Amino acid sequence: MDNEIQSIEEGAFDNLTSLERLRLNRNRLRNIPDHLFLSNQKLHRLDLSENYLTTLTDDQLHGPKSMVNLQLDKNQLTCLDSHTISTWTDLEILTLNGNNLNTLGELEPMNNLRVLRLVDNPWHCDCRLKWLNKQELRSKHMLNNVKCHRPAMLQGRYVESIDIQQMKCSGIEKRAASSCREASVCPSVCACTDTTVDCHDRGLKHIPTNLPPTTTELRLEGNRLTFIPNNAFQNLRNLVRLDLSKNMIQDVAENAFAGLLSLNTLMLFANNLTDISPNVFASLKSLQLLLLNTNKLQCLRKDVFKGLQKLNLLSLYDNQIKSIQNGTFDDLRSLQTLHLARNPLICDCNLEWLGEMLAERAVETSGARCQSPRRISKRRLSSIPANKFRCKGSEQFVTKHAGECFIDYNCPAPCFCYHTTVDCSGRSLTEVPLNIPRFATELLLNRNEISHIQLNTKFDQLTNLERIDLSDNKIVQIDEMAFDGMSSLKELNLTNNKLRHFSSKMLGSSSKLLETL
């Protein structure tokens, strides 16, 4: 246990004929060989919990004669054969919590079974699970907190509370694979028709690994996916349509879609994405439709759409995008429809290029409007003349690095900003304003009423700041490390305050470059 074992070779335990207990939990196992335990007939406790196993077949479990305790919690199991398990008449404990199981073959009567844990699986309460409602399981309270995920009419209901007559099967379920070997052709949690694999609304937390290589359409919408790992679909060379909408996806690995050279349609709408790595879509040379609407995207990295020359519809509707760097759409030569509405767009000089593009190409059809600056707020982006995309004072610096997913703070309300100077002097301030823009190279706070420079002032975020003027205040205390981390600070003016004590600890690492104090 507690290692990083990813594989076990065939016959690894053949010589361990007296083995009684084996703990392989908390490793990285994705598969185990057939007949791995064939020589371990005395094995009575096996712990494979907290690995990455997706299926366990009868052949993989075959061997032990007197198994008492089998723990399989917190894997990614979508299929578990039950025949071998049913032969273990001494079995007392079987734990399956936290997997992706939607059904389980009937276990023959086990008089010694006292613990059966099935919580946190997306159970499909159809005719295949009727056996769970047997009186002996209920009487031993083995179904406590076990809930149905499907069908919709039973979703959220406790299994033990369901009338057995409600547990019915459709034609698809009746034709479902009878073993995990058969399920390898089609994941047991999904339904396969011709070249379409339908895994929607199954409560999945992980993408099934045994997807047929002939798949052209994969439906994974309406699940509980939070992350799309590298090479998640690498064997699906023929995939044309992929639906990942209505999940809880927060992150997509850079090579998640590697190998999908035929993919035409990718739906990622209604997820929790805040940022997308620049190379995520790089291999999708055939992509024509990309739906990213209704996420929480705060930015678009400049190269995020690089190489998508065939894309003709891009939806970014209903996100949190404030600005888009010039060049972001350069490769989208076939683009015919673009949705940008319901984004808090800052229509300043750095977005002028987009206004010009939309004036030339009438592709924005969702009615996108500017949120700021106030002078053009609520106006349609495509109707604003180029000369209206202006920057006043320091406005150009706020959105200058949008392509790097950085939008700076606006000038603080009591202050005045010009170029990279933030002037808060003579404003009767009693503390340093919050959210000083990071583009600032000079911060004027002189002639105020500030008495205490606190550690939580967050000066360390102002890595471009070269000069701070705090003269003519009422400063009596500066916390240790208050100015730490200011890697560009050269001048700090504390003239005409009420300091009685000064220590280099107040400056921290900023003291190394300081020239004037």
UniProtKB/TrEMBL annotation:
It is found in: Secreted. Its main location: secreted. Keywords: Developmental protein, Disulfide bond, Leucine-rich repeat, Repeat, Secreted, Signal. Pfam families: LRR_8 (PF13855), LRRNT (PF01462). GO terms for cellular component: cell projection; extracellular region; membrane raft; perikaryon; plasma membrane; side of membrane. The keyword Disulfide bond applies. The keyword tRNA processing does not apply. GO terms for biological process: nervous system development. Residues 94-200 form the SRCR domain. InterPro entries: Cys-rich_flank_reg_C (IPR000483), Leu-rich_rpt (IPR001611), Leu-rich_rpt_typical-subtyp (IPR003591), LRR_dom_sf (IPR032675), LRR_TM_domain-containing (IPR050541), LRRNT (IPR000372), SRCR (IPR001190). This is SRCR domain-containing protein. It comes from Ditylenchus dipsaci.
